[in-house]
Amino acid sequence: MNTTDLIDTFDALILATQALCKSIRQNHEGVWVPLTPAEQSDGLSQIDKACRIFMDFWYQDGQDGRETRSCFGFIAVDDHTLDLAHKVNRLKETFKRDVQSLQKHNKQQWLELKGQLARRHPALQSQLHFSGLSRLHLKQTWRTITVTDRTPIRIGFNWYHSGRSIQKLSVQQAYDALARLDTSSPHIQTQLSAVSKLPSHTPLAKVQNLAPTMRANLFYEDGKTPSRHAMNISLPILFKSHIERTLPQHNEPEIDPPQQRQRAVRSDRKIEDTPFLPSIRVHRYNQ
Which of 14, 96, 134, 181 has its CA at 20 to 30 Å from residue 127's CA atom? Predict the structure, then answer.
């Protein structure tokens, strides 16, 4: 991996995203991005908030390493702006591929380069009130901007709170995972004893609850067959403006996700709710 190429891709991504935001400001045909009371009090505009989140590539002070800032909404733009957004997404994909390749083949070189990348473009960080930051947030850097070349007539937003990552484990794999922890601790010893009593063929599942996600449903009726497109989003949607059409109808969900899931738990869930091995988030399957 040529690190010079990776740096060049990162710089190109920054410049392309700046060009995209400039075009959005100059050419948008309508916007809806919800603002918090604090943002309204500060005089932040909806377009300013959208462009700020598009350029949000760094960790902020005190930000949890697992946290990814997001923002939903939509902006009607012209064809030129859509082309710029597609260019940004291509650069994001190239940057992601190159970073992951370097991480895999030369981790130490990546760690050295990561700090160098994060300190580039100090003027931009200062402009966005991110001055002094030295940590690049990869997931925020390469996440895709949702772009559609069609004009929706309606957009429905809903928080999706029940996502889970499930990894199947064998009894031996669960035992080995526990054994890598502090086996002198009584609670680890208790769990080791519990898993050792299971038949070796017992299926287990490692479960991780995922952060709430905003789900958008876009409805189209533009001379083609009426259709609906559902997607998870973390950035405002860019769609093709239509001179004869107002902004799409839409609901206005809470800006922050609900603390608890809104949908009823399925009665046929196959995995026990209570973890069998809580230290490694491993559950048994319902009998």
Answer: 96
DSSP label of 224 = S
Most confident of 20-24, 96-100, 121-125, 243-247: 20-24
Distance in angstroms (rounded) separating the CA atoms of residues 115 and 191 = 40
The three-point CA angle 216-219-224 to 5° equals: 145
Q: CA-CA distances (angstroms) from residue 181 to 46, 169, 171?
A: 48, 17, 16
Instruction: Write the DSSP symbol of residue 251.
Output: -
Give pLDDT, residue 86: 98
* Domain range 164-209+263-284, CATH architecture: 2-Layer Sandwich (3.30)
Q: Where in the chain is the domain with CATH 3.30.54?
A: 164-209+263-284
Query: Which parts of 35-151 are beta strand (E)?
Result: 74-77, 147-148
Q: Specify the CATH class of 3-159+213-250 in words.
A: alpha beta
pLDDT by residue (tens digit) across 164-219? 778 899 999 999 999 999 888 899 999 999 999 999 999 999 988 777 889 999 99
User: What is the reported pLDDT for 127?
Assistant: 54
131 to 68, 90, 139, 188: CA distances (angstroms): 19, 27, 20, 44
Residue 265: pLDDT band with limits 50, 70, 90: very low
**Which residue type does 279 have?**
S
